[in-house]
Amino acid sequence: MEEFELFLNKLFTSDEIYADTAIKLGNANITDRDSLAAFLMSLEKPAKFRLFVSDEPIDNTTVNEITDTFRECEQNSKFINMEVIVDEFLNLIDDTAHLTHESKPRTLVHRDGDLHPAVHVWIIRRKDQGIFVLLQKRAHEKKISPDCYDVSAAGHLSQGDEFRKAAVRETEEELGLKIHGSDLEHVGLIENHYTQGDIHDNELRCVYLYRGSVHIEDLVLQSSEVSDVCWAEVDEMLTTIDDGDFENCIDLRELALIKKAVF
Whole-model pTM? Predict the structure, then answer.
């Protein structure tokens, strides 16, 4: 069975959506609903269509029109099998480490190993000459590194997003901590490649420090992402990071950036 993956991006115009659909279906004559329906009903062998719809909370009449067309044709043809998948679309990083305007569903980005942007926020404080960082324990339901200690807050950039804006958003979503972008200190960019099963997560991370006053008891944890938080002293953590009792997915390069920025 031939398979097709279509990207229905709610941020695109009607012409852009149909042009991309025509490319992915290999038929330049597809320009509107009627020509799409004509193409689908002309199929003489089974085909599976996966329609990835971007998850912005907005309405796009062309996206609705295309999904409706596929449903109608599926009902009237024994050759069509279709599935609609709502997913976050991520912008990709090019070979020169620059953010591009090209976007792709997150599921496929992780399947194909495309380099994409992410943010890491380290919440730090100094006490008794030591550097302490706030660690989050990843929720048990997470597909990547469940139940492992990790950076204070982290996340991807949705399409059209900006690094600092994403860092502010992820910190509030995961920890319930509202911060201002100007309070984030940029300390570096790190490229990271991680594979677990059929997940190939290749990120270009923008790493930030936040030095504001934070009290654990005031945080509101996002249960789907974070199960717990704690403070850890950096040097002590470095001596135990490979200890089997300390399950973590912490990047040592980021701890080095923290120490360099603080001292």
Answer: 0.90
